[in-house]
Specification:
Number of helices: 15
Largest sheet: 3 strands, mixed
Structural class: mainly alpha
Strand content: 5-15%
Number of strands: 5
Distance between the termini: 50 Å
Order of helices and strands: HHHHHHHHEHEHEHHHEHHE
Number of domains: 2
Strand order of the largest sheet: 3-4-5
């Protein structure tokens, strides 16, 4: 990043000091992770397979959420007193030193990129479709992501009425059935064969009451996974809610919490 050299282009010494500080921070992060200690940004990066550029973009957007004075700095750099959050143009300017770096980084800030697909970042004006127009729009971190990074506990307000984290216990006869059906080791066996970054999608179907939900709970329990239930019927009942958006946020929430998301039509 080169925020200081943007303000004082002649000051290479400041830029060098900044880069040295960045190396020290990176080293401390690696040492912390080696000690198996939790870091929210590192966890977020692992869950969504983020690049260093994407992490830098998140840090830039997080700055004014932590300290309001960054809003004044951003407004100055945006040359617009009303734009106190980062823009795509500002993110590119702060992170890219060459035209080639800038061109390479642009792919991570499109509508189809991970940062926007998983709603980690949000455009102030969602109607701007083309990149040229959108790059000057303010960009903010999603409120749930801000709270997650700052380790503020709570759930996404938009989906809280559609998900259930209640712990459900299985009856003995359900456990016997699931064991006989050899459902215990499906997820553990899959994880042994596939990369940990891959998503697992299982579709259990059958007549109502045949035990799909109980089987799902058992498989997750045997894999050491917590379960979050998504109420599809409630989503359909709330006509103003976007089905695709709610489901996407529910699966994002499950990923953030390391849970298995089970879609049910109660």
């Amino acid at each position: 990043m080169k925020i200081l050299s943007l303000i004082h282009p002649e000051s290479n010494e400041i830029e060098n000091e900044f880069q040295e500080m960045k190396k020290k921070i990176t080293q401390k992060v690696m040492e912390t992770l080696d000690r198996k200690q939790y870091l929210s940004l590192a966890y977020l990066s692992k869950v969504f397979n983020l690049t260093q550029f994407e992490k830098d973009a998140i840090i830039i957007c997080l700055a004014p959420e932590i300290e309001k004075k960054y809003g004044k700095i951003f407004a100055y750099l945006n040359d617009d007193i009303t734009k106190k959050h980062a823009t795509i143009e500002l993110i590119l300017s702060l992170t890219c030193h060459t035209r080639e770096e800038r061109f390479q980084a642009m792919q991570y800030l499109t509508r189809q990129s991970r940062l926007f697909k998983y709603e980690i970042l949000q455009m102030e004006d969602e109607k701007q479709e083309d990149f040229e127009s959108a790059q000057h729009q303010p960009v903010k971190l999603d409120e749930r992501i801000v709270n997650f990074l700052l380790e503020i506990h709570g759930q996404d307000k938009e989906i809280v009425s559609f998900i259930d984290f209640s712990k459900l216990e299985l009856e003995d006869e359900d456990l016997v059935f699931c064991n006989q059906a050899n459902l215990n080791n499906i997820i553990p066996n899959y994880l042994k064969k596939e990369s940990a970054n891959n998503r697992i999608l299982l579709n259990l179907h059958g007549p109502q009451g045949c035990g799909q939900r109980d089987a799902s709970i058992l498989m997750c329990k045997n894999s050491g996974l917590e379960v979050v239930f998504l109420d599809l019927a409630e989503i359909f009942a709330q006509k103003q809610a976007s089905f695709e958006r709610i489901c996407g946020k529910a699966f994002r929430e499950a990923s953030l919490l390391g849970c298995c998301c089970i879609s049910c039509k109660y």
